[in-house]
Amino acid sequence: MTHHDSHASPPSRAPAPWWIRLAFLGFLAVAGFFLLVEHGAHLFGALPYVLIGAFFALHVGMHAGHRHGGHRHDQTQPPPSNPATPTPEDRPRGGHQH
Fold this sequence. Notes:
Blueprint: H1 18-63
C-alpha cells in the first residue's frame, strides 16, 4: 500500500435541483441590482482611476513578452554578428512600435 492509496476520495454529491439553482440565481440578481443602485455613485466615481490603472497594467504586460533594443541585461554575451533586418512582413501589425 502506497501513501496515495490511504487517501479516500470524497463522496460525489448529486447536483442541486433546478429550483434551488434558479432561486440562487434570482437571489444573486436581486443582490447585484441593489448593490449597483445603492453603491453606484462610489463605483462610477472610481471608474476613471480603474480604467487608467487597467490601461497601465495592460501596457506593462504587453511589454513583458519582448525585449527592446538597448535593454541588455546580460553584458557577457556579444551582440549578434549579422542581425537580420526585419522586412515589413516580419513586423507586427498595429500602430505601437518601438
